[in-house]
Design a protein that fits this description.
CATH topology: TIM Barrel
CATH architecture: Alpha-Beta Barrel
Shape: globular
Strand content: 5-15%
Strand order of the largest sheet: 1-2-3-4-5-6-7-8
Helix content: 40-55%
CATH class: Alpha Beta
Length: 311
């Protein structure tokens, strides 16, 4: 059930701030069985040494047509980027670093996430599209065969217009057809069934985070029961495992607002087959936090099986 267990990289923020090498941290997770890694872009990552690599890649993609970028991405995954005759010298360092990341393990699955106000009407459509194009091209570089880009709408400052949000998603889908990428949005700021409805209409998938349904006082954002009555397995591409209490997001799974056994049961009922990504508060011991969280999760898995057997 948890064969697709992994992490979201914002849990690495403290270690990256201490100048740990990004690839080395990822290798530690892979060696401990966490094969699914979502690279969550943000200030913590851009301020690190690996952030310079991301900036270099964004600069590099401007030097190639969409078709050339697509072929370059495939070459990187085939470990043949040095044989690409039109790869420009100034781009080799950034491209080779992604190649090194991919060489950690053939079982490593990488996806990408960015902050993007996908529910808002863009003030500048060209700039809005450009941000999505960069995100999709980076996502494709990380995984040409399973490319995924998660859009995180950080702050909803105005009433969401359904037509605008759906239109944005449709437009994003049409960009860079040479580099096919699965778009995902997460439930945040609004009730989960609202986000599910927008994602479905926009032909996007949902990355579900149960903890995002809770305010700081433990009250829920909207009716979660309505969400579980409507959601289907095919609509879910990722589940983020995070625990929250009155203090905030915890560093490890444990007691809190999210009822983990109930969540696991619901996903079992759906025959959910996507990945499970641990997303927790960053500490200086992210590997240990992930391992302990996995133990908690596996315990709930056993408890869930026992309960089902009794019924």
């Amino acid at each position: 059930m948890f064969d697709k267990l992994g992490i979201v990289t914002n849990c690495l923020a403290k270690r990256l701030a201490d100048n740990d090498r990004f690839e080395r941290l990822i290798e530690d997770f892979v060696q401990n069985g966490f094969m699914h890694i979502e690279i969550r872009d943000g200030n913590y990552l851009r301020k690190s040494e690996f952030g310079e690599i991301l900036q270099g890649l964004e600069t590099a993609m401007q030097h190639y047509s969409d078709s050339e970028w697509q072929r370059l991405c495939v070459a990187v995954h085939d470990h043949n980027s040095n044989d690409v005759p039109w790869l420009q010298t100034q781009d080799r360092r950034s491209i080779n670093r992604i190649g090194q990341l991919l060489q950690i393990s053939s079982e490593l699955v990488l996806s990408y996430a960015i902050a993007h106000p996908w529910m808002d009407r863009p003030e500048n459509r060209v700039e809005d599209d450009a941000g999505i194009i960069r995100g999709k091209k980076l996502a494709y570089l990380l995984s040409p065969t399973k490319a995924r880009l998660r859009l995180v709408h950080m702050v909803v400052e105005q009433a969401v217009d359904e037509n605008t949000a759906v239109s944005n998603l449709h437009r994003y889908q049409s960009l860079t057809p040479e580099c096919p990428v699965t778009l995902a949005v997460e439930n945040s700021q609004l009730p989960p069934y609202v986000i599910l409805n927008l994602a479905t209409q926009g032909n996007a998938c949902l990355a579900y985070d149960e903890a995002n349904n809770y305010y700081q006082d433990g009250m829920t954002i909207g009716d979660t029961k309505l969400f579980w009555e409507r959601v289907e397995s095919r609509q879910l591409i990722s589940v983020h495992l995070k625990q929250k209490n009155h203090v905030g997001v915890r560093a490890r799974l444990g007691d809190g607002f999210v009822d983990l056994p109930v969540l696991v049961n619901r996903l079992l009922d759906l025959s959910y087959g996507g990945d499970w990504l641990l997303e927790y508060r960053a500490t200086d011991r992210p590997i240990q936090d992930a391992i302990q969280s996995r133990k908690v999760l596996l315990k709930h898995k056993v408890d869930t099986r026992v309960q089902r057997a009794r019924h």
